[in-house]
Amino acid sequence: MTKHTGPAQTRRHFLRMAGAAGLAAPALIGSRGLAAEPQRIKMGMVTPLEGECAQWGIPITRAGQIWADEHNAEGGILCGDGERHMIDYSAYTNVCFYPNEELTAFRNAVLQDGCKYMFQTYTPASRKAIARFATQNEVLTNSYGGGFMSGDFPYLMGGITGSPTAFLGLVSHVLERHPEIKRVALMFTDNSFGLAGRAYSHAGCAPYVAAGNIEIVYNELFDPNMTDYFPLLGAVMQTRPDAIFYSDLPPGKQAILLEAAQSLGFEGVWMSHSWDLPQIAQRVDLAALEGRVYGGFGVDAMEPSFSDKAHRMYQSYVEKFGAGEWIGFAGLTYSAMATLDAAFAQSPSVEPADVMETLYGMSDIDHPIYGKSAWSGQDIFGVNHHLLTPTPKYVIQDGGLALSGVVNDHDWWEEHKAAALPVLQQHQMTEV
């Protein structure tokens, strides 16, 4: 990565050289051109930048760059010290959410490039891989969800509800919108990402199962490398589901999955964290999915009504890269990075420890995308380091995404945790 040498570094070098030569350093006060600039913030993004998983990682990286560029265009992000601090943003690959590659990327970012802030996937295995390293090096690490946190690792935070927690409210939203659903199939990828989604979807179903409103008729994992979905969907269809809840496939495979289901005659309801319509529309007529395909793990900025700020970000993205390059994770990432805005604005410095203490010290946050949000996580992680933001839910309608409703995830958990928490414990998704 490129090393940045600014006026502050130049000044320190000059003073060292002057001292070594026994010379008096000239006074720099009042010399505007030589005054030390505010400390720069070094932010690293770890995400897949190669292979199939780059369908996620490249848009995610772009979204982070847009967040940094917006602040830099104003002279830097405003901090509680009264100064604006420029953001140096760099991206690092984890290949395809591989834990060992995650740790390698973190080491490069922190030890070689001096990053003090990092952003990564919520995928539990990736989070656990860097937890000790991030904490020992005091690197505040944000994510678009809460896959792993612990009191032992305070530098890991969940910046928004995101995945997998948003599955809880998404399940409720879908079942309330479609009371005709009685038979539910859970179909998830056999990896850390999918296992978490399965656990939280199962937990979201728990209150409805307990009330006798639904029955889970299929609950199995499948190989994420699969490309022929007919055998899988054939087995699912034998259970006669009214709805299929699934994750997690990159955009191109989402389209293939829906196409196969359509060929097999499935006309029920779909639920997943998100659906990437530009890619899906290349294989499936979106009109055939009208009103029965739901998603929502955070803001999908292509939909204009939930957040003006997020939608302006979408417009910037499309202007630079084209509508066909958009995926929901881009908006999700941008909105999770925006959680830091309020913390920097009140922190006495840009040091990660100060920003972290400021952030956790806020009883609630008026989030620039989601509005009033509250810290949670004690029941699951043993510590309240997961910001639960109200989460928009979307449905395919009129050839695009329409806002179907908003779930207050904090309130959902308080109301339903008695039924949901034992299921998360059963799936070994808790740290307490």
Automatic annotation (TrEMBL):
Top-rank taxon: Bacteria
GO biological process per UniProt: amino acid transport
The keyword Transport is annotated on this UniProt entry: yes
One Pfam short name: Peripla_BP_6
Keywords tagged on the record: Amino-acid transport, Signal, Transport
Record-annotated membrane-spanning stretches: none
Location of the Leucine-binding protein domain: 41-379
Family according to the record: Belongs to the leucine-binding protein family.
Protein's name according to its UniProt entry: Leucine-binding protein domain-containing protein
Organism: Pseudogemmobacter humi
Phylogenetic lineage: Bacteria, Pseudomonadati, Pseudomonadota, Alphaproteobacteria, Rhodobacterales
